[in-house]
Amino acid sequence: MKYCVTINDKRYEIEVERGDATIVSTTEIPLGAVENKNPVNLQTAATSVTPKVIETPEQITEESPGVGREVVKAPMAGGITDIKVSVGSSVRIGDTLIILEAMKMENDITAHVDGIVTEIKVTRGENVSVGDVLVVLK
Hints:
Distance between the termini: 49 Å
Largest sheet: 4 strands, antiparallel
Number of domains: 2
Radius of gyration: 19 Å
Oligomer: single chain
């Protein structure tokens, strides 16, 4: 099957055959000329690409009940291999809170704000889904 995907003003024609994805051609698109008639799930179209996990505000959000509480959510499904903090720990932006294994890769889940760990919602060895709350900070 062939797919056309547009990323950062470049259009990629991708051919997927039996789980292998190959880029057939790449073309630059003038700004404003991007048309998205058939959206493609990039995860299934480009199976040979290994994504780098970057935490974004959509994955880490503030929990509405309880002013000043910040939650750290799982950006992907996987297993908890290590918990680097404990309740009462003081953390700074970028400190590793949890090690999450997904697709045989260990991913550091880090603090997005300075704060104090008030709750740890997971245990070592537990499997989590995307969006599950891992840690609550205050």
